[in-house]
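JOB MANIFEST
job_type = single_chain_structure
chain_count = 1
residues = 102
[input]
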Amino acid sequence: MILTRMLRRIFSGNASASGSAAASGTGDDIARLLPKLTRPAEDRLFNFFMPTFWGTSNPDAVTAAAKEIAGLSTGGHHFADNFLTWNRNMSCTRLPFSRSFA
């Protein structure tokens, strides 16, 4: 219930910390509720491997193939939800949308 009320206030433009509908500086209030966007450590790689996928007749073979690809690749990898990618450089953090959280 608390989350529902908070989301309603955020999306209605009334996101004050006290819950009052008369929030001044609503953009500042919303920015305060979001976590601060920080720059990832360039010397660390984060891998994610969660073999969750659909539409295959042999999930064990798909998992084994994904593990082999991840083992042969350089850089970090991500495998989940029918998606396998590797060696990404987080270039999306340079997009204007991502900078809006800074």
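[summary]
Residues 79 and 85 are 7 Å apart (CA to CA).
The radius of gyration is 20 Å.
exit_status = 0
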